[in-house]
Amino acid sequence: MKEYEYTLCEVLARRFAGFTGAEVQIPPYQRPYRWAVGDVRKLLDDLDDFRFKPVEKQEEPSDQDGCYDEGAAYYYGTICFYANRDGDKVALELIDGQQRLTSFLILFQALLCAVDGFDAVQKERRALIDVLKEAADPAEWQGDDWRPRFVYRQPQTQEHIRSIYRELLADYLRVKALANDAKAEVGEDAVRAYAANFFRRELRRLKYELTNGVFAVRIIESRYDADLFFQCENNRGMDMDVLDILKAYHMRIALAASDENSAGEPAPGQESAGGKIREIWKTLTATEERSTRLRKTVVGLLLLRVGEPYWMFWDKRNVEKLKGMHGTVHGNRVVDAKLALSAQMPEGGFLPDLMSPVIAGMPFFATLASYQRMVEALCLQKSSGGEVDSVFARLVLNPDWQFDDSRALAIQAAVCWLDRFSVESPDLSKPFDEDVKRLCCAYNRDFELLLYIQYYIRLFKRLRKPITPRDSPNTITVFAKLVGARQTAFFKLDRSFENLLTLPYRTNSPADCRRELERLTHPDQVGWPMAGDHAGAYRKYVAAENEADIEKLKDQGKQNEHAV
Fold it and tell me: What pLDDT, in 10s, does the model give residues 15-36?
C-alpha cells in the first residue's frame, strides 16, 4: 500500500501517482452516497473556523472582509483507491472517501451554475474554472462545462446526488431572488452588493479548498489488500456493526498520524500505534460478555452527547457522529492546539469527557478503554470470576422491577455521575483487570454514587412495578410497558443536554445533582411531555409510595422498640 499527499484539485483531476485522468468507480460493496445538505455545506463552513482571517478595521468600504491563510494546508483526512488494472487500462475504485469527494463535486457544479451570467462575480468564477481546467484532463471539458470521470452506478446514489444538487442550487438561486425582492426596502445597490459578496465568498472558499485542501491518498495495488482494507464494512459480503466500522476508521487516522510523526517507525522502546490498538482491542473484547458491553453500553454512552437513545448503538447512521475531530495540519504537524494537547496526554492521565466531541485516531481507542473499565467495574461480580462484588451490581442487575433495558439506563446514569464527580478515574497505564478491581472498590465506597443510583431505582419502580394503595383494592401501574418513544419522552433521551442521564453535567455537586433529579421527577414536574396521559397515575403512585414507606418505617420502629 502506497500513501501520498495531494490537494483536492489533484485528487479530483486524478493527477497523482501516474493515474492522471483515470476513471473513478464506486465499487458495488460501498454504501450509497447519503450526505445531507448540511453535511455538504459544512465542508465550506468549517474552513472559516480554522483558516479565515477577518479584517479587524477598514478605513474605507471593501468587498474583502478578510482572507484565507494561503500558506497553510487544510487537512481533509485519508481517502483510499484500489488501482484496478486491465492490461494497459486502469480504473480507480474509491474504497474510502466517496461522501467527501462526491460532495465537493456537487458543490462545484451547483455554485458554477448558480453564478453563471452574474456579472459581479465573473472574475472569481473564471479563476475557479481556470484552476480546475489547469489540473483536469482536457477531454473532460466542453467549454466551461466540466464532466469529471466519476462513475456512479447505484440508483440510490444517483437519485440522492440529483436531490442534493437541486437543494444546493435552489439555495443559491434564492440568494439571487432575495436580492430582487429586497430592492424596494434597502436599495438595489446595497442588495446587489450583498449578493455579490456572498457569491464572491463562496467562490473564494472553493478555490482555496482546491489549492490548499489536502488529502492523504492511499493507493492499493492488489484486490486482496483492497478487500482486507474494506473488511470492516464488507467482510466478504456481510455487514459489520458500528463499532467495527469505527475501529477501522480511527485506526486509519491513528496510523496516518503515527506515520506522519515518526516516518513510519516508532521511537526506540515504544510500541507502534498499530500494536497499541491491537492490544487495546484484544483486552476490550476478551470475553463475549465484555465485548457485548463494549458494543452496546460504551457506544451508547458516546452517543449521549448527540441525543441518541442508548438502544441506537447498532444504527450505522451514528458512525458519522462518532468519527470525531481531526484537526488541521500545517506541513507535517497538527496546528490545532487543543486537539494536539489532548492527543499527547500521557496514557495514564487520559481523561475523556462524555459531553466533549470524540477525538479521532488513538484518543478514540483510549476513550473506549476508559469507559469500558468504568462499566466493567460497575458490573463486576464474584459469580463472573471477580474477586470483588460491585454494590451497584447488587442494587441494579437483578431486581424484580426491571423493564426493557432498565439496566442500560442505570449503567449510563452511573457512568455520567462518575464521569462528572468521581475522584477515581481509569488508569490506562495499569492492567485492565487490576484497574477494574481498583475502580470497583472505589465505587463501593462512594456513598454519594450509591445514593444517586438508589433514587434511580426508586424512579424505575415507580414507572414499572405495580403498587396497591392502603385504602384501595386496585393496583396502580404507571406504564404497563416502558419502551421506545415512552422511554425517550420520560427520560428525554433525544436531548443531549436536557435528559435525565446527563444531569450531572448540569449541576455543581453530587448533592445538587441528587436534588435536581428529585425535582425533575416530582409529580409537579412530570407532565404531558414526559408521561403523556399517565401523569395522573404517576401522581397517585408517588402518593401511595410515600404512604407505604411511612407505614414500613413505622413498623420497623416498633420492631426496634420491642427488641430493645
Answer: 877 787 789 998 876 778 988 8
Q: How far apart are CA 233 and CA 235, in angstroms?
A: 6
pLDDT, tens digit (0-9, with 9 covering 90-100), for 497-510: 889 999 999 988 88
Residue at 43 is within a domain: yes
Judge if 449 and 368 occupy the same domain: yes
Amino acid identity, position 29: Y
**103 pLDDT band (50/70/90 cuts)?**
very high
Q: Is 14 helix (H, G, I), strand (E, B) or coil?
A: coil
Structure confidence at residue 1 (pLDDT): 56
Last residue of a domain, one of 182, 211, 229: 229
3-class secondary structure, 3? strand
**Average pLDDT taken over every residue of the chain:** 80
- Report the chain's terminal Cα–Cα distance, integer Å: 81
Q: Are 20 and 149 in contact (CB under 8 A)?
A: no
Domain assignment present for 564 = no
Contact 450, 392 (CB under 8 A): yes
273 vs 340: CA distance, rounded Å? 16
Question: What is the distance between the alpha carbons of residues 84 and 19, in angstroms, rounded to a whole number?
Answer: 11
Residues 212, 133: one domain?
A: yes
